[in-house]
Automatic annotation (TrEMBL):
<feature type="binding site" description="axial binding residue">
    <location>
        <position position="443"/>
    </location>
    <ligand>
        <name>heme</name>
    </ligand>
</feature>
<keyword id="KW-0479">Metal-binding</keyword>
<dbReference type="GO" id="GO:0016705">
    <property type="term" value="F:oxidoreductase activity, acting on paired donors, with incorporation or reduction of molecular oxygen"/>
</dbReference>
<dbReference type="GO" id="GO:0004497">
    <property type="term" value="F:monooxygenase activity"/>
</dbReference>
<dbReference type="InterPro" id="IPR002401">
    <property type="entry name" value="Cyt_P450_E_grp-I"/>
</dbReference>
<dbReference type="InterPro" id="IPR050364">
    <property type="entry name" value="Cytochrome_P450_fung"/>
</dbReference>
<comment type="similarity">
    <text>Belongs to the cytochrome P450 family.</text>
</comment>
<dbReference type="GO" id="GO:0016020">
    <property type="term" value="C:membrane"/>
</dbReference>
<dbReference type="InterPro" id="IPR001128">
    <property type="entry name" value="Cyt_P450"/>
</dbReference>
<keyword id="KW-0325">Glycoprotein</keyword>
<keyword id="KW-0408">Iron</keyword>
<keyword id="KW-0472">Membrane</keyword>
<keyword id="KW-0812">Transmembrane</keyword>
<dbReference type="GO" id="GO:0020037">
    <property type="term" value="F:heme binding"/>
</dbReference>
<keyword id="KW-1133">Transmembrane helix</keyword>
<dbReference type="InterPro" id="IPR036396">
    <property type="entry name" value="Cyt_P450_sf"/>
</dbReference>
<dbReference type="InterPro" id="IPR017972">
    <property type="entry name" value="Cyt_P450_CS"/>
</dbReference>
Length: 487
């Protein structure tokens, strides 16, 4: 096996003991560093992180081979002791591969797959109209607050229409408290829970991850453990309350919580696990959606020609007497291309929570590590794989030399009869980007996300023009909706 290590993929030389760690610690926007290395080292970059084997996966071809075709080996996430105390075993995005994760993932798939995601169309349309109206007329919130509020489109899908009550008011934050869960602002609570998990996964955040023996220190003497156990209780309580309220309030059974409360869809899950499934789905959905919408607004400011082209399409297909809806989707290729291009150009998660090189043995219900090979390169068992979605989306061999440009036209062609834009046939069913990840751990909410982004963007572009005004974004009524958007 040691001999095989001579065949590890190439990577930047590191220093003794710490390896490549000093080159990476404290670097913001690490994906730019990885992107540079991709051009030097190719589809896999090997890194030694203080003795830990880490590989950065830089190309779609490598991701398809390892994460799709060999998904039995690469569907685990690395273990984090602190995250486990906070509850990662019950949170789909962070859970290790195994029976509990499989049960949760099956239940999530049952309520988020391509077919059922259309049942959330009415609530998504309503939320998109509220968002556009807020962008135009809400003078009391900052643009950032409005964009963050845009995540309520997906939250309403999970918890039902406006089921979580919003009464934003000044909150007193306890400085000793790592996890702030303001009752009056559920979106903020969900976002803080997400941050609590991801910050516990940062390499070097907790000494116990490097010295696991410290886990034997009792909670009374270990503050990190006390806090993590306390936070598990508080997150469970919050998720449970959101779930119970949603199931109780959703008489029409349109929300994901209501669907999941049907035992058939979520067989094998306890009530508490259902609350964690829905809670962790919202955490995964929240910032990914609002980040993508922020980049959409930014792109529209930077490229008024794209905005104009999209509005011409909306005027032609939808007109001014009604707002866009999902029946228009097949006739709005330019808007669909904008959704794809925003996701390609600025993936909400440029580097994905690592995968582990492991092999599942269902017979024994635990997992054996396994060495692997890719194109003559050795992948030692236990290697953590980082998915570099940023570089995959900016692959010049796939997208051409203008990868850094925002250009929805790359997914389109002109029709022969009318000279109008149509989606290139291959992108009818293909994303055209890698921003939802790959294989068994790929984004389970991608259909709901795509629908939310389509309708949000279509209704915003139909209702208003987005222009920069000094340093703030001005949303103007110049497009003049012909009827009151919100009754
Ligand atoms: C713009 C929107 C979104 C983007 C870009 C995005 C992207 C991603 C990515 C990259 C992953 C990790 C995939 C991997 O490891 O290969 C992921 C996982 C996940 N996403 Fe999304 N996502 C979005 C929206 C959503 C929505 C709306 C939902 C739910 C309604 C959702 C639910 C999840 C869940 C539960 C996971 C964890 C899957 C697992 O580990 O089994 N996401 N997402």
């Amino acid at each position: 096996r040691d001999g095989n290590r001579k065949l590890l993929p190439p990577g930047p030389p590191g220093v003794p003991i710490l390896g490549n760690l000093p080159q990476l610690v404290g670097v913001s926007q690490l994906w730019h560093t990885f992107d540079k290395w991709k051009y030097e080292y190719g589809s896999l970059t090997f890194l030694n992180m203080a003795g830990k084997d880490v590989m950065v996966l830089n190309t779609k071809a490598a991701a398809m081979e390892l994460l799709e075709r060999r998904s039995a080996i690469y569907s685990d996430r690395p273990r984090s002791i602190v995250a486990e105390y906070i509850g990662s075993r019950m949170a789909i995005p962070f859970a290790r591969y195994g029976k509990p994760w499989q049960n949760m993932r099956r239940a999530a798939h049952a309520v988020l797959n391509a077919r059922v995601s259309s049942q959330y169309h009415p609530v998504q349309i309503e939320e998109a109209i509220i968002l556009a109206h807020g962008l135009l007329y809400d003078k009391s919130s900052t643009l950032l607050e409005k964009i963050n509020g845009s995540a309520s489109t997906v939250i309403s899908v999970v918890y039902g229409k406006r089921s979580l009550s919003f009464e934003k008011k000044g909150q007193v934050v306890d400085p000793d408290e790592e996890l702030h869960l303001p009752e009056s602002d559920p979106l903020q609570s969900l976002s803080n829970i997400g941050h609590r998990f991801t910050s516990s996964l940062y390499p070097g955040a907790y000494l116990v991850e490097v010295l696991p023996i410290l886990d034997y220190v009792p909670a009374t003497l270990a503050r990190w453990k006390r806090n993590a156990q306390r936070d598990f209780g508080r997150i469970s309580e919050t998720f449970q309350k959101f779930y119970d309220d949603a199931v109780r309030n959703d008489q029409q059974r349109t929300s994901l919580c209501a669907s999941l409360s049907d035992t058939q869809l979520a067989s094998g899950l306890t009530n508490a696990e259902k609350a964690w499934v829905t809670g962790s789905i919202s955490v995964a959905a929240l910032e990914t959606t609002s980040t993508t919408l922020s980049f959409f607004l930014y792109a529209m400011i930077q490229h008024p020609n794209v905005q104009e082209q999209a509005q011409k399409e909306l005027d032609r297909v939808v007109g001014r007497s009604r707002s866009p809806n999902f029946t228009d989707i097949a006739h709005l290729p330019y808007i669909r291309a904008i959704v794809k291009e925003v996701l390609r150009w600025q993936p909400a998660i440029p580097l994905v929570v690592p995968r582990m090189a492991m092999e599942a043995s269902m017979v024994h219900a635990f997992y054996f590590a396994q060495d692997d090979w890719y194109e003559g390169n050795f992948i030692p068992k236990g290697t953590a794989l980082i998915l570099n979605l940023w570089s995959m989306n900016r692959d010049r061999d796939i997208y051409g030399p203008d990868v850094d440009q925002f250009r929805p036209e790359r997914f389109l062609q002109k029709s022969e009869e009318k000279g109008e834009y149509i989606l290139q046939a291959e992108y009818e069913n293909e994303d055209g980007h890698c921003s939802f990840g790959f294989g068994r751990r790929g984004c389970v909410g991608k259909y709901v996300a795509d629908n939310a982004l389509f309708i949000d963007m279509a209704i915003i572009l139909w209702a208003l023009r987005i222009e920069p005004k000094a340093f703030e974004i001005k949303t103007s009524t110049k497009r003049g909706p012909t009827h009151d958007l919100v009754k």
